[in-house]
From TrEMBL:
Residues 1-21, 945-1000 are annotated as: Disordered. Residues 79-236 form the Upf1 domain. This is 14082_t:CDS:1. Residues 87-119 are annotated as: C3H.
Amino acid sequence: MNRFSTQNTQDTQDDENFSFLEYSGGDTQASQYDYNDFSLESQQTNTLLDGSQSQFVEPDLSGVGADELDAFQDLAIVERELPEHACRYCGIHAVNSVARCVTCNKWFCNSRGNTSGSHIINHLVRAKHKEVALHPDSPLGETTLECYNCGCRNVFLLGFIPAKSDTVVVLLCRQPCAAMPSSKDMNWDTSQWLPLIDDRCFLAWLVKVPSEQEQLRARQITAHQINKLEELWKDNTEATLEDLEKPGIDDEALPVLLRYEDAYQYQNIFGPLVKMEADYDKKLKESQTQDDIVVRWDVGLNQKRIAWFYLPKLESGEVRLAVGDELRLRYRGELHPSWECVGHVIKIPNNVSDEVGLELRRSDNTPVECTHNFSVDFVWKSTSFDRMQAAMKTFAVDETSVSGYIYHKLLGHEVDPQVLRTQMPKRFSAPNLPELNHSQVYAVKSVLQKPLSLIQGPPGTGKTVTSATIVYHLAKMNPGQVLVCAPSNVAVDQLTEKIHATGLKVVRLTAKSREALDSPVSFLTLHEQVQNNDTHVELQKLIQLKTEQGELSSSDEKKYKMLKRACEREILQNADVILCTCVGAGDPRLSKFKFRTVLIDEATQATEPECMIPLVLGCKQAVLVGDHQQLGPVIMNKKAARAGLCQSLFERLVILGIRPIRLQVQYRMHPCLSEFPSNMFYEGSLQNGVTTQDRLRKHVDFPWPAPETPMFFHSNLGQEEISSSGTSYLNRTEASNCEKVVTKFLKSGILPPQIGIITPYEGQRSYVVSYMQFNGSLRKDLYKDIEVASVDAFQGREKDYIILSCVRSNEHQGIGFLNDPRRLNVALTRARYGVVILGNPRVLSKHPLWHHLLVHYKDKNCLVEGALNNLKKSMIQFRPHRAYRKDEKFRQGLVHQVDAREAFAKPPLASENRRGSRAYDSDFMRTHDPVGYIPSDMNSIPSSSQFSIPLLPTPNGPFTQDLSQSSVSSRKNVKQQNSSYGGGYTNSISSQGPLTQNAYSSQGSMSLALSQSDRLRMMENQTSLSHGSLMSQDSSIGYLDDYKSQGNDTILSQDFEIRSQTGC
């Protein structure tokens, strides 16, 4: 158990009056607070260091000149074999500057080198190791760092505090020991607790930071090399930097393209990416075995055994546990024979409980009398990846998988627009659904006439109602079933409810692992409809028999399966609409069906291969609904993400020039809350369907700085800390202020379910939940009902009041994926009545996106500081931000085969390190980068539409000239453009003729996709784009009013008009 003595044995008499409080205020890097002022008393070493132990042996170099000395030392460094305790990254081996990872026994130093954190912290984070020991010859002696109170050795949890009555420093873990009230009764000033790790380095008095000279003479290693080396160590613990030079180690996957020659090229590029993600996911889950699990047993309503337990490793966030996932529970103790059983998850950790609920498949021989010595394995299933691969293969080899028009549009070939000849309904609103506004009516009308449509639904614009209305009309107008999909079960369930309300026959198809789970639409699921089908009497008897006995004889089981399949097929054939997840569309029960019409909701959250699963079931009319300005798909494998697997099909089609139909009227947010997202992310096009009076609650006594503007940004200067997982962050100051704001909301009469706390980091989420439980001034049960979740978990949902905790507050680390515009867009648009943001404006304002937000809040007098009951306007001044360089992202537009990622923003650069070099911010690796760019200075745009997306170039490829000669090309011979479109809607499709200049304009060797806004006109007297010249910031094209409403295509945007007048 660790206590740092502030008495050095050589200077005991001189330091009797040493006061720790002089230094506990924060500057632990000060010279008087140096590492050699401390010694360590622990379970391993109980004696204090004497003077001889604190001296270092130096070679006798007397008589050697300065130049000769430098040469001698350089030569010695090169020739000398590094000792065992040398840093495995850079070779630094000063005993006071290195520490040993207890888990793998490798040594690392406390220098940053060319990385944002010290080498020892880099290793601990990437290897997910958490225990550290100091060198035996270090001033503090050999010891493993641990909590004085409980013995916890997780260095990411450890911090130090002074003892009130002694000149010692005590190590305590952040939770629970430093937070326990009892700690305050042990002569420890817990309010002075500070973490041992600051700015991703150990404090210098614990592990000395090597000098500049030592670092310059050390081996230079980059963050990229460190990542590769850590990957190699997973398979070969003795791998070295030289192994990184071996062929194949650093191979990158082929990047995704904007256009594809044919479906075989498409499959050859996406297939390896899907396999890469599958292999990574498999390896990750199989490595997540957790031992020493304590289980409590229960029995569900269906008489199946349920095991309840905690999974400590879930906080790392690397493995996402979802309801319906399969886990294997094993017992290897002495009280019962070895046992294991697979079950599916019925409950995941939440605010109320961190327990996981696992329903077992079978209950025989279950060791219910045992509670300890269990292990949990993640069961990896390849189903989703197999279905993606199968869909891409079908797309390539089966000509009936999609229509010719859809085939060419998906591959990015330029074909003439198609219009479906169809009789429009007299009334566009669907029964039992809200009346549609003008933009929703336009969306429905447009979709019914096109074989391929994109609908962009900004937050709160009624996207689900619009989708349900479209499905209603498609089902009424076309024969056969309409297939409706979404990447998540929650989104599918929401659509199921809306579509069922219209009176259509709806079937919700779920995975068999989710059949036992309850949902609002359970009565519409296929398995429930089978069980409640009275027309199949014999099947009902077998179902009842199986329920009573638990199993059937082999003959009865065979008959049961046959009758069940027949009943399922009958129900599906009689349905108007079938709903399932995108992966669920690959269910064998749908393999015999052909779906002419497919709608994919939340399409921007699905990968391209995921979207292909429902599309290849015979699609002739496709509707993709989503919002590319909100979060995209989650890809775990960074190499696959860099190659472009993180880009959705919706985004690629937008870049190719297919203009999405935007819904314009938002019904969720108070007008003041929608103003910034509308201007920043949607060019100011969002209209408010609610008034200020609709979203003001006068009976709520909350101290808004401006009563008519229910929002504020509260300045929090507390520093971020690494969470216990080592891979996430928390901010104790913000957590404390979260509790204060929540308590004030509750005292004002707001109910707990009306409040949501959003934080980007799992470490902060967990800490806020715990902090409110232990430190909240009201009843604990009130805080339990307040949802604390990530940005991702809140997408597609809303609360009356939202508190956003930004967490990041540092000097060198940047702000991670807070810099992702989509993440901020989602976070700001969840609230209906009010928003409170907690963050460090000095750190956040360094980034253009947050700079604009902070300026906006300051202009509204909503940037404040101080106590909640005495808020004062913040006097912080923001520097004018330098111009944002946006022409770089179009530089590759002149190349034929364009990497689709090049039309997207690059990850933000971290701040410069001490050597002046800059590296990509590794925390930004959720890589669904924005289509649009973030303007550096909103005042420089002379328009009420303060955010514009620059014109996206479309490279001139083999399909940009010839394909327009025919209405639609056959997919049999792509290079011969002579055959005509056939099948499906042949008789109802008429060509609109060749594209006009407003749709596509070709200049020189570049084709510019102007179809995003055919209101634009080419400006005169400007430098033209010819023969592959680059489009600069002052290009003659100006800016696209890209996704404006479709109301009057002849009206130029204000942005365009002003630029035309000023000659910009």
